[in-house]
Specification:
Blueprint: E1 21-25, H1 36-44, E2 47-50, H2 56-59, E3 67-70, H3 82-94, E4 99-103, H4 113-122, E5 127-130, H5 135-142, E6 155-160, E7 181-186, H6 192-202, E8 209-214, E9 222-227, H7 231-238, E10 244-248, H8 257-262
The chain binds S-adenosyl-L-homocysteine.
S-adenosyl-L-homocysteine binds at residues 28-29, 53, 103-106, 109-111, 134-135, 139, 186-187, 213, 215-218, 242-245.
Length: 269
């Protein structure tokens, strides 16, 4: 079966011209979660600058002959420092290439996409910004956790667990304690002992349901469910590493075991 991609609202717009940059969200892993717009940019790229969170399956969609530049991006192991990445985008655009900056999830959600776009635009280079499905949204769906649920969670907060340069995790803990609020930590695995301790000290119950989703939406997806006060045990027991999302809130128990088993069709086998 051939899949023809409809040209939606951009029917007459030239999407990617020479000497331009496209900052494209690749979603959290499953290529089926790419937007049609992301797909089109990927298909026209001449150079791709990508990081660790972009899946192999998505890289396989790049046109033959597209130059691939890996710039890392593991926590504390940035292969190319941010300034270097910014400069690469500008340098390749000035060589009149169609420069694809491919990022995991959404470029503007903990992706430093804002900084990259600022730099590119300051150099008078056109920059397309293509949203992607952010990990919090996609990974929770794949494991049957609604981020909000009537009468259970009225709000949802995405927050970074990345420890700041001074070794501290200065976060507004008192704003994360409402029982009817789902809290999702990105980059939270390393600082999880600090996160759970501070959250409970601020008043969030230790018995609050919590989940860890590792490599969500990919064939290696794993989900571990427990409670806030036992999250560290789960990490130690299963040796859980990044990329992992930490989800905290009563929504985690929305579906019982039997219903979750029937969600199987959504999950990669
Ligand atoms: N811009 C990305 C987030 C980058 S920050 C987005 O919008 O999703 C990197 C963190 O995102 C990881 O440490 C992890 O907490 C989370 N993350 C990204 N992809 C993930 C995945 N497939 N499964 C679990 N967590 C993921």
């Amino acid at each position: 079966m051939t899949l023809s991609i409809p040209n939606t609202i951009h029917a007459n717009k030239q999407l990617f011209a020479a000497g331009e940059v496209a900052l494209v969200g690749a979603g959290p892993g499953d290529p089926d979660l790419l937007t049609l717009q992301a797909f089109r940019f990927i298909k026209h790229a001449e150079i791709v600058i990508y990081d660790r969170l972009v899946s192999e399956e998505i890289l396989a969609l790049l046109p033959e002959g597209c130059k691939k530049v890996y710039v890392g991006k593991k926590q504390a192991d940035h292969r190319v420092p941010q300034d270097g990445i910014n400069q690469l985008l500008v340098d390749y655009a000035k060589q009149n290439k169609k420069v694809l900056r491919l990022k995991g999830g959404d470029p503007f959600v903990f992706g430093r996409g804002g900084e990259e776009a600022q730099f590119v635009l300051k150099h008078d280079i056109a920059c397309h910004i293509v949203p992607g499905m952010t990990a919090a949204s996609a990974c929770t769906s794949y494991v049957g956790i609604p981020l909000t649920h009537r009468q259970v969670a009225q709000s949802c907060t995405f927050i970074t667990g990345n420890v700041q340069e001074n070794g501290k995790l200065a976060l507004p803990w008192h704003t994360l304690t409402d029982k009817k609020q789902t809290v999702v930590f990105y980059m939270g695995i390393k600082s999880l002992p600090l996160i759970s301790q501070q959250l409970m000290a601020a008043g969030r119950q230790g018995s609050t349901p919590a989940a860890l989703i590792h490599k969500g939406t990919s064939p290696k997806q794993q989900v571990y469910r427990g409670t806030l006060d036992k999250l560290n045990d789960l990490v130690a027991l299963h040796n859980i590493k990044p990329p992992t999302l930490v989800v905290i809130g009563d929504v985690i128990n929305t579906f019982d075991e039997k219903s979750l088993a029937n969600l199987g069709y959504l999950s990669p086998k």
